[in-house]
Design a protein that fits this description.
InterPro entries: Ig-like_fold (IPR013783), PKD/Chitinase_dom (IPR022409), PKD_dom (IPR000601), PKD_dom_sf (IPR035986), T9SS_type_B (IPR026341)
Largest sheet: 7 strands, antiparallel
Organism: Limnovirga soli
Mean pLDDT: 90
Strand order of the largest sheet: 5-7-2-1-17-16-13
Protein name: T9SS type B sorting domain-containing protein
Keywords: Signal
Pfam families: CHU_C, PKD_4
Structural class: mainly beta
Strand content: over 45%
């Protein structure tokens, strides 16, 4: 029995090791000292981890907690601790002023155990690690997902006091479930208690990354020894500013406060120092991911103070906590003596102060009976305060001097807060008016100056400066050419003292713009010294005694076409003649257009040296291609094309729908409207073809329609409706009001067995088609005739029972009933009939009753019924 229990326990233990923890959102370690003995001090350790609710993940069970010696980081022991308990902590929003509150929920896991450790002079570090934090945190570098986490606690050693190991750690007690709305004020408590009465001091610190190779399943590994790497914070964030610069921590209370950043997930780590007798004996940490939601808080919030220290005494102030739920605003402005000078109920208060001074503005807002708030601020009205600064010196490792250029009309400037923008140092700040700072890395530095005056005005000015390892020197050119005995002026720009070498054939060697006239190719070097910071550059001056020029060969072009002239030359300037036919007569590649044979002469210059050459351009007329006018053809007919050229060859395109495409008179067999192009070529020198085109428009197919066969009675008007073309011709014209329109009216005075009319319809191109319609004329009154029998045997004859209308406008109902009185067929359209089935089932032979309802051509209703025999 004992062996079976051991096997089962082992299986359960291995299974539990497979449930690796991730989606961990925070953690901390704390302890109490429960006693001491000859073996050392006994501590009751608690590891507390936070997990995202509804993540479908699990805490490690068990997990490793390891102990290391401080100072040497030597491993002391590893303890495998089972999960003790879990708690669900969910915050219910009871604040009616919070709109769209988030779901704030955590699952907290506790690991508790005891360990006995001998006293050690440096003390111990307690470490627990998890594989994965929550992904997608806003304050970490993008792309660094699947980061782990390390949580530590510190047991002090005897070097901070003989009784220091008998320590109870500081324990965080702040509420971990807090609603934080983006862009709104908030507070978040990381406060702690210490049962030893130690002084506690709080600070924001960097969160630690997790183990890089934690192992999985049965191969779970104990934590790595210190030191531990930090998580990679993104731009604008750091361990001391995990929510940006608008958030800070009270070092005496552990309360984080400020204006929340944009919605997202942020990791925060808080360190609390335990101070005993003025000495820090241990530092405990709490690491937590917090959610900033896109909710909003209905309330009043004003900037404090509101400064009119610039160029105006007019204020336009609004509630910075905007919400469309606010129903009432109440503003009150008071002066220094408490007298009200302005009130309004508008959402925005606008007011121009008549005098300088300090005023109070109060805003009260109401959203509902249970949701009201107020806010007050001081308004400083002291216009004419303008911050500014200048600087001198931009060399690496050399002092850069900064000068305050701020001005004020009221009061005096009495405070300066400089940030020199050096991201590699925490000492890049000064409170002097005109400080100096030495940069140790080159690059662009964003310098910021915050100044204030004795009236309370404060403002910020910033600007970028570039720090160089060498002062920037720029040359107008680094390579040039002169022709002896010409000279050239070298051009350098920069802020410093210039010195050129070698000092031969040079005038003004100690200026930025010397003139040189060397007799051979010479490299001139320039040194620029800016306060002991030196940069170098050089210019090669090539010297020649002639100009090289080789123009392009003479050429032919098509008449009216442009041509780009070109040449090979080391000249520095060019002049072309005749200039009027060129787009740029000073270019080495001008574009020419000429209608006659032209000699283009180009002269290339290097200073006073020059050389000329000529290009002859001969324009040749384009070959001529001619096709007749556009044409139009009927559907599925052909068109004869007629082309002519004055060249030596030609090509038709597209040729796929042409017969005899190798002739000038092909036959077009187009299915759709097509543009045919005739290209003519010759061998006279113009390589381009002459073109002409013709459009063959193919008219759509004509489909004539005369109408359906019908029957009328004597003197009943019959409206014809033909379609399909542009013109119509009816024959015979018997009884018709007109024979050359689409819609004649027929009237008949005598009965006929049937008149078969033909209508011919034509379009604009003369294409035509014809259709037929038969009209029967009855002598009877308007009637509907129904056959007395039919044979639905699918032989194509008498298979369907249909009513035949004579003198009727329309048939509204034709119905058939069986002997039981059940309607087995009905139709409300002329031309439809019964096929002898009901619901798809053929009906038996026999007698059936029919009825018909109609309206005759005079508008009178018509009703008739009778019987029909179905024969099979």
């Amino acid at each position: 029995m004992g062996r079976k229990f051991f096997v089962l326990t082992t299986l359960l233990f291995c299974f539990a090791l497979h449930a690796m923890a991730d989606h961990i959102k925070g953690g901390e370690i704390f302890y109490t000292c429960t006693g001491s003995s000859g073996a050392g001090y006994t501590y009751n350790i608690t590891v507390k981890l936070y997990m995202v609710c509804n993540s479908g993940r699990e805490f490690n069970n068990p997990t490793y907690v390891s102990f290391f010696k401080r100072g040497t980081n030597a491993r002391v022991t590893d303890v495998l601790v089972p999960l003790g308990k879990t708690e669900l902590r969910q915050l219910q929003n009871n604040n009616p002023c919070i709109i769209n509150p988030p779901n704030v929920c955590s699952i907290v896991g506790f690991y508790n155990f005891s360990v006995t450790l001998p006293a050690y002079d440096e003390g111990y570090i307690i470490t627990s690690q998890v594989i994965f934090r929550v992904d997608g945190m806003n304050n970490l570098v993008s792309g660094y997902d699947r980061l782990g986490a390390t949580y530590i606690g510190v047991i002090p050693g005897t070097n901070t006091g003989a009784n220091s190991p008998k320590n109870n750690s500081a324990t965080f007690t702040g509420n971990d479930e807090v609603i934080i709305c983006a862009d709104n004020d908030f507070t978040y408590s990381f406060s702690a208690t210490d049962s030893d009465g130690d002084e506690l001091r709080y600070s924001l610190c960097a969160a630690m990354n997790g183990v890089e190779n934690p192992g999985f399943g049965n191969d779970i590994q104990p934590p790595n020894p210190p030191p531990y790497s930090l998580v990679p914070y993104g731009p604008g964030y750091s361990g001391s500013a995990p929510l940006g610069r608008n958030i800070g921590i009270n070092e005496g209370t552990g309360i984080i406060s400020g204006v929340a950043p944009e919605p997202g997930i942020y990791v925060i780590s808080v360190c609390v120092d335990e101070i005993r007798n003025g000495i820090i004996i241990a530092t405990q940490r709490k690491d937590l991911q917090i959610n900033v939601a896109s909710c909003s808080i209905v309330g009043a919030k004003l900037p404090n103070p509101f400064m009119l220290c610039g160029d105006t005494k007019t204020i336009s102030i609004s509630n910075t906590n905007q919400s469309n739920l606010i129903s009432n605003y109440s503003w009150k402005f008071t002066n220094a003596s408490g007298a009200t000078i302005y009130t309004t109920t508008n959402p925005t208060a606008n007011y121009t102060f008549t005098d300088t001074g300090i005023y109070t503005v109060k805003l009260m807002v109401t959203a509902s009976e249970s949701c009201a708030d107020s806010s007050s601020t001081k308004v400083l009205v002291y216009p004419g305060f303008k911050p500014g600064f200048s600087y001198d010196g931009i060399c690496l490792s050399k002092p850069t001097s900064f000068f305050d250029t701020s001005t004020t009309v009221y009061g005096t400037i009495n405070n300066w807060d400089w940030d020199f923008g050096d991201e590699t140092s925490f000492l890049d700040a000064s409170s002097l008016q005109n400080p100096m700072y030495t940069y140790l890395r080159e690059g662009v530095k964003n310098v910021q100056l915050i100044v204030s005056n004795t009236k309370g005005c404060i403002d910020t000015v910033s600007g970028n400066i570039s720090i160089f390892s060498k002062p920037p020197v720029q040359l107008a050119f680094t390579d040039t050419l002169i022709c002896q005995p010409d000279s050239v002026q070298l051009l350098a720009t920069g802020n410093g003292i210039f010195n050129w070498s070698p000092n031969i054939h040079i005038t003004g060697a100690n200026t930025a713009t010397p003139v040189v006239d060397p007799t051979v190719t010479t490299t001139y070097y320039v040194d620029m010294d800016q306060n002991g910071c030196v940069n170098h550059d050089s210019v090669i001056v090539h010297v020649t005694d002639h100009v090289n020029l080789q123009a392009m060969n003479d050429t032919t072009i098509c008449l009216g076409d442009p041509i780009q002239l070109h040449l090979v030359s080391d000249g520095l300037q060019y002049s072309w003649q005749p200039a009027a036919q060129l787009d740029n007569a000073q270019s080495n590649r001008p574009v020419a257009i000429t209608n006659a044979i032209t000699n283009y002469t180009v002269t290339a210059f290097i200073g006073h040296c020059s050389v000329s050459d000529t290009i002859v351009v001969t324009p040749i007329p384009y070959p001529v291609a001619t096709i007749g006018a556009d044409t139009m053809i009927c559907f599925e007919t052909t068109a004869q094309l007629h082309g002519s050229i004055n060249g030596s060859s030609f090509i038709w395109s597209p040729a796929s729908s042409l017969q005899f495409a190798n002739t000038l008179n092909p036959l077009a067999i187009a299915k759709t409207t097509t543009t045919y192009i005739l290209a003519a070529y010759d061998t006279k020198g113009c390589p381009k073809p002459g073109l002409d085109s013709v459009i063959v428009t193919v008219l759509p197919e004509i489909k004539a329609f005369a109408g359906n066969d019908t029957a009328v009675v004597i003197n009943q008007p019959l409206q014809f409706n033909a379609s399909g073309g542009d013109s119509y011709a009816w024959s015979p014209a018997t009884g018709l009001s007109a024979f050359n329109i689409a819609t004649p009216v027929g009237i008949y005075t005598a009965p006929t067995e049937g008149i078969r009319y033909r209508v011919i319809t034509s379009n604009a191109a003369g294409c035509s088609d014809s259709a037929f319609v038969t009209v029967k004329v009855y002598k009877v009154l308007p009637s509907v005739f129904v056959p007395t029998g039919f044979t639905p045997n699918n032989d194509g004859r008498n298979d369907v029972l249909k009513p035949i209308a004579a003198g009727m406008q329309s048939i509204s109902l034709f119905a058939v009933y069986n002997r039981l009185g059940q309607m087995i067929f009905s139709a409300s359209e002329s031309g439809k009939g019964w096929d002898g089935t009901f619901n798809g089932t053929p009906q038996n032979s026999g007698t059936y009753v029919w009825l018909v309802k109609a309206t005759d051509y005079t508008g009178k209703p018509y009703f008739e019924k009778g019987t029909v025999t179905l024969i099979r």
